[in-house]
Specification:
Elements (H helix, E strand, L loop, with lengths): L5 E5 L4 H12 L3 E6 L2 H13 L4 E5 L5 H14 L3 E6 L14 H29 L2 E6 L11 H21 L4 E8 L5 H10 L3 H11 L8 H11 L11 E4 L6
Parallel strand pairs: 1-2, 1-4, 2-3, 4-5, 5-6, 6-7
Helix pairs in contact: 1-2, 1-8, 3-4, 4-5
């Protein structure tokens, strides 16, 4: 039987984050649902609680260390020591390089990279004390490069290096760190990409499905299942890995 633990999922108000929070709750864990969108985060927590789970919604800006520290302290007080962290919070500010502003670059870096740094730094002491920890950071197939996403691609590649370093530093404390790199997942974020490109979302989905070996685009639940495994007791010998969940092989 899986031991009940406290999990933190950032960017959990919708999409992959919401699906992951719900899956970890179904696995028997208590879940802290963190997001800038407090109202929607509460809606996700309410769904979990009404289904018999236990969840706490908190408004949190992951790019701000003080906001994260306060949230993690509250989680430890109200739910218990957090030993599972899923860094999912992310944004896009797509632009071709010659049009990309410093602000667009910095904001993407702040949410993806500084956010993942802030959350793990605040939570790692609880993992070390428990001699158990599971860190799952969301990367992307865009880490391999993607037109119009110099900032996002660099951030997601950075997440992979950060994850491998966490695995090396924290492994002796019973803590694993892995990255999940989704391919095309049907979310608000990919809808925004379609809009930027001036393409109808349904057409965008159909086009991408034809490029994927399993002949469909991914759903948030596909990623949630993978995170569930990496957060499990049974994944204790899997660490420092980047798992591409993209419906086919990625180099």
């Amino acid at each position: 039987m899986t031991e009940t633990r406290t999990a933190i999922v950032t960017g959990a108000a919708r999409g992959i984050g919401a699906a992951t929070a719900q899956r970890l709750a179904a696995d028997g864990h208590q879940v802290a649902v963190l997001d800038l969108d407090a109202e929607q985060a509460q809606a996700v927590a309410d769904q979990i609680n009404s289904s018999g789970g236990k969840a706490l919604a908190l408004a949190c800006d992951v790019s701000d260390a003080a906001s994260v520290d306060a949230a993690v302290a509250q989680i430890a007080e109200e739910l218990g020591a957090p030993t599972i962290v899923v860094n999912n919070a992310g944004i896009i500010r797509d632009n071709l390089l010659f049009k990309m502003t410093v602000e667009e670059w910095d904001l993407v870096m702040a949410v993806h990279l500084r956010g993942a740094f802030n959350t793990v730094k605040a939570a790692q002491k609880y993992m070390v004390e428990a001699k158990f920890g599971r860190i799952v950071n969301l990367s992307s197939t865009s880490a391999q490069g993607n037109r119009g996403q110099a900032n996002y691609s660099a951030a997601k590649a950075g997440v992979q290096g950060y994850t491998k370093t966490l695995a090396i530093e924290l492994g002796k404390f019973g803590v694993t760190a892995n990255a999940v790199a989704p391919g095309f997942i049907q979310t608000d974020m990919t809808a925004a990409t379609a809009e930027r490109m001036g393409v109808a979302f349904d057409d965008f989905i159909d086009y991408n499905a034809k490029q994927i070996p399993v002949a469909r685009v991914g759903q948030p639940e596909d990623i949630a299942h993978t995170v569930s495994f990496l957060a499990s007791e049974g994944a204790g010998f899997v660490s420092g890995q980047v798992i591409y969940v993209a419906g086919g092989p990625k180099d």
